[in-house]
Amino acid sequence: MVYKWLEQALAWVFPFNCIVCERAAGETGMDLCAACREDLPWLGRACFRCANPLAAAAPVPEPTALVCGRCLRQAPHFERSHCVFNYGEPVSWVLHGLKYQRRLSGVPVLSRLLLEHLRTRVERWPELIVPMPLHAARLRQRGFNQALEIARPLARALGIPLGAGICERKRNTAQQSELPASRRAANVRNAFRMRGALTVKHVAIVDDVITTGATVNELARLLKRNGAETVQIWAIARTPVNFGNKR
């Protein structure tokens, strides 16, 4: 009750303003207006395993049937991916501002929307949330880990432990966004290592954007090698990828 009153008082003193249009007042307790929320690039029909968008087709009886050809040919090391948006404007603008211009005002909105998405789709909650690690050099340069900032409110709201230091990125790999799809898996191969013992069987990896899925797959592989039985991927956005195009 006290926290509810405090939240209402803060909203009165510091009213919510939309981070997208920067004009309208925010609604539903966050810095996002109703019109901009409606125009966000919501992810529709997508692969159950990797969340890559799928072409519209006739309905299928079970969600597990929505698996792309690539995952059928070679299953990833994770069982399920939950993404809220296609990686397009204005979500891409908000994420770019968060990562490269330190616009942390986007974190509460992104985390809240991901939380709303997860609460309607996750059937069994994980025992641990692991944010995608940044290499120490990149962390010093950026000043924060965007995946950790997104993961913190999720862990707090869901009451799930946050494993922020259980894994680390041991190699300062090239930026995945600067590489063609055919080179991304090799770029992150053996890029992570454990810093502590994994004592749970069900883990969720949190990241901001999934493109080919190479990075989250490599971290999931490490977690599986160290005792995890089920790994979910939770991300804000998914970049549509044509895996037949090696560029």
Characterization of the model:
The protein is an alpha/beta fold and 247 residues long. Helix content is 35%, strand content 14%. The chain has helices at 2-13, 34-38, 69-73, 91-101, 106-119, 136-142, 146-158, 181-188, 214-225, and strands at 80-86, 128-131, 167-169, 192-194, 202-210, 230-238. It has a 4-stranded parallel beta sheet, with helices on both faces. The longest helix has 14 residues, at 106-119. The protein is globular. It starts with a helix and ends in a 9-residue tail after the last strand.
Give the SSE map:
Blueprint: H1 2-13, H2 34-38, H3 69-73, E1 80-86, H4 91-101, H5 106-119, E2 128-131, H6 136-142, H7 146-158, E3 167-169, H8 181-188, E4 192-194, E5 202-210, H9 214-225, E6 230-238
Parallel strand pairs: 1-6, 2-5, 5-6
Antiparallel strand pairs: 3-4
Quick summary:
The chain is α/β, with parallel strands linked by helices and 247 residues long. Helices cover 35% and strands 14% of the residues.
